[in-house]
């Protein structure tokens, strides 16, 4: 009366179909999870890159403004003499969305990846006010405002 387990040969069709159905459900769950996490990952990477770019640009801009001389304000434009970029220069943004000073990029183009910068600079009461906005596809990723007091203002 004892049956040995090894007497059965092969796998029944219903067992195989159940195994395939379970694997299909697990695969569908994993694929759905991956598709749901990709946008979150991309947003996280964009925010991280924007934070690094903001920090790098803020430091480079602060270094230039800290040593600015011969500062003149004309409407919305602020120009000054820079040790590195020459006389009568002002900050702007080129066609690629990279911050420029005196027609030259402040930091290398590789730092931007697919991000663009917008910069607004004003000068009043011996203090520069700089608003730096980092965008990706016309959507603001990060924005910061900082103040710089030049030590050589004349």
Explain the overall architecture.
- The chain has one helix at residues 13-66, and strands spanning 69-74, 77-82, 86-89, 91-93, 99-101, 104-105, 116-124, 127-136, 139-148.
- By secondary structure, it is an alpha+beta fold.
- It has one domain.
- A three-stranded antiparallel beta sheet has the order 1-2-3, with no helix packed on it. A three-stranded antiparallel beta sheet has the order 4-5-6, with no helix packed on it. The chain has a three-stranded antiparallel beta sheet with strand order 7-8-9, with helices on one face.
- The longest helix is centred in the N-terminal third of the chain and has 54 residues, at 13-66.
- The model has no long low-confidence stretch (mean pLDDT 89).
The helicity comes to: 25-40%
Unreliably modeled segments: none
E-strand count: 9
Q: What order do the helices and strands follow?
A: HEEEEEEEEE
Approximate shape: rod-shaped
Q: DSSP strand (E) fraction?
A: 25-35%
The N- and C-terminal alpha carbons lie at a distance of 108 Å
Radius of gyration: 29 Å
What summary fits the major beta sheet?
Answer: 3 strands, antiparallel
Decide which structural class fits the backbone: alpha+beta
Mean pLDDT: 89
**Helix count from the secondary structure assignment:** 1
């Amino acid at each position: 009366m004892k049956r040995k387990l090894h007497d059965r040969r092969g796998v029944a069709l219903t067992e195989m179909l159940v195994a395939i159905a379970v694997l299909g459900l697990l695969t569908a769950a994993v694929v759905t999870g991956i598709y749901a996490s990709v946008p979150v990952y991309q947003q996280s990477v964009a925010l991280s890159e924007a934070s690094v770019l903001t920090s790098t640009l803020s430091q480079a801009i602060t270094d230039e403004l800290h040593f600015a001389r011969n500062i003149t304000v004309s409407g919305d434009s602020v120009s000054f003499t820079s040790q590195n970029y020459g006389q009568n220069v002002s900050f702007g943004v080129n066609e690629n969305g990279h911050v420029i000073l005196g027609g030259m990029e402040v930091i290398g183009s590789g730092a931007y990846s697919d991000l663009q910068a917008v910069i607004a600079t004003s000068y009043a009461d011996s203090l520069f006010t700089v608003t730096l906005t980092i965008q990706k596809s016309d959507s603001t990723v990060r924005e910061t405002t900082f103040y710089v007091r030049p030590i050589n203002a004349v």
